[in-house]
Design goal:
26% of the residues lie in helices and 24% in strands. By secondary structure, the protein is α/β, with parallel strands linked by helices. It folds into two domains: 224 residues, Alpha-Beta Complex (Quinone Oxidoreductase, Chain A, domain 1); 126 residues, NAD(P)-binding Rossmann-like Domain (Rossmann fold). Bound molecules: zinc ion (2 copies).
Length: 371
């Protein structure tokens, strides 16, 4: 199958012929239909987060089940599915207490000695043996920039068949991350005030989630006017141009002292600190963005006397087998905006141009569509 491979940090992905294994007992083979190009892929291309290489990137996808292993119970051949990178085991402490997105059980991956899910057959040694050259690392349990995916059954969920694949794919990462941060991680209640820093795909989904949760005031913050305009159409009641105004002061002025919930959807030290400083007493700051490895965050200690909280939000603290079909219904019912998140539909071969566009930071999102 064709796949987009990262061989070296900082270099463009190469389109290669990659081999994929047969489903093990609890694995599912998926024909990829659509894959979003997410900013998190870019973090690994640029090396701000490390990953074993070479690797097939991509982690925001939807497709059709082609084959299932002998013990798979949750999906069947022909099912339309959304994938989720936070594969869960289902029986560890975090899973059983409802925090499946924090599961790190190794059993959803193949063990070290086992045949890898992805490899390069054409590079096998003369006796057919695997060398370190032939192995392809699977990225975040998925590797979606490929015509097929081989995943644990707890890394995908079946959805209704009238849901378009390109929009379903977005629910698999950015939309789950944004909406989940609001409804799960921070538990926004109707009428509360929300500020969202960064209006890319995740930020817009966070704004949309806040609107769905019934937040009173939803303040969008960005430096790009076109993104602020888009933020209004996703439900923002107020916008702040961070290039022109100090966002902390502007939020405090608008809300008479700060918001109940703030969400950082960029991944920078300065905006993470702003998210904390723009809280009212008792408020909660949620860091969604991927802050580069090694970066430290500084907070003003006495602010804790006002019971201000700061916490991470990973993949929207999801319980995705429940959440994603609900989000599909929300889209089909007109409450969740997905059409507006897609700026371009591209082919796998054009993936590097999608990264260039992400770096420029102007448009929302490119989606790779297969056939
Ligand atoms: Zn993502
Ligand atoms: Zn678990």
């Amino acid at each position: 199958m064709k796949a987009a491979v990262l061989r070296e940090v900082g270099k463009p992905l190469t389109i290669e012929e990659v081999s994929i294994g047969k489903p093990g007992p609890r694995e599912v083979l998926i024909r990829t239909k659509a894959a979003g190009v997410c900013h998190s892929d870019l973090h690994f291309v640029e090396g701000s987060y490390p990953h074993p290489l070479p690797a097939v990137l991509g982690h925001e996808s939807a497709g059709v089940v082609e084959a299932v292993g002998s013990e798979v119970r949750t999906v069947k051949v022909g099912d339309h599915v959304i994938t989720c990178l936070s594969a869960y085991c289902g029986h560890c402490e975090v899973c059983l207490t409802g925090h499946m997105s924090l599961c790190v059980s190794p059993e959803t991956k193949r063990a070290k000695g086992e045949e890898p899910r992805l490899f390069r057959e054409d590079l096998l040694g003369s006796n057919g043996e695997r060398t370190s050259d032939t192995k392809m690392a699977q990225f975040l349990n998925l590797s979606s920039f490929a015509e097929q995916m081989l995943v644990h059954e707890h890394a995908c969920v079946a959805i209704r068949r009238d849901m378009p694949f390109d929009r379903a794919a977005l629910i698999g990462c950015s939309v789950m991350t944004g909406v989940g941060a609001v409804i799960h991680t921070s538990g926004v209640r109707p009428g509360e005030t929300v500020a969202v820093i960064g209006c890319g795909g995740v930020g817009l989904a966070t704004i949309n989630g806040a609107a769905m949760a019934g937040a009173g005031r939803i303040i969008a913050i960005d430096r790009i006017p076109s993104k602020l305009a888009l933020a209004r159409s996703f439900g923002a009641t107020d916008v702040i141009d961070a290039g022109a105004d100090d966002p902390v002061k502007a939020v405090q002025d608008l809300t008479g002292g700060g918001v109940h919930h703030s969400f950082e959807a960029i991944g920078l030290k300065v905006t993470a600190e702003q998210a904390f400083r723009m809280l009212r007493r008792g408020g909660t700051a949620n860091i969604i963005g991927m802050i580069p490895v090694g970066t430290m965050i500084e907070l003003h200690g006495p602010d804790f006397l006002g019971e201000k909280k700061i916490q991470g939000s990973f993949m929207g603290s999801n319980r995705f087998p429940v959440d994603m079909p609900r989000l599909v219904d929300a889209y089909m019912g007109g409450k969740l905006k997905l059409d507006e998140l897609i700026s371009r539909r591209i082919r796998l071969e054009d993936v590097n141009s999608a990264f260039d566009e992400l770096k420029r930071g102007e448009l929302a999102r490119s989606v790779i569509v297969f056939e």
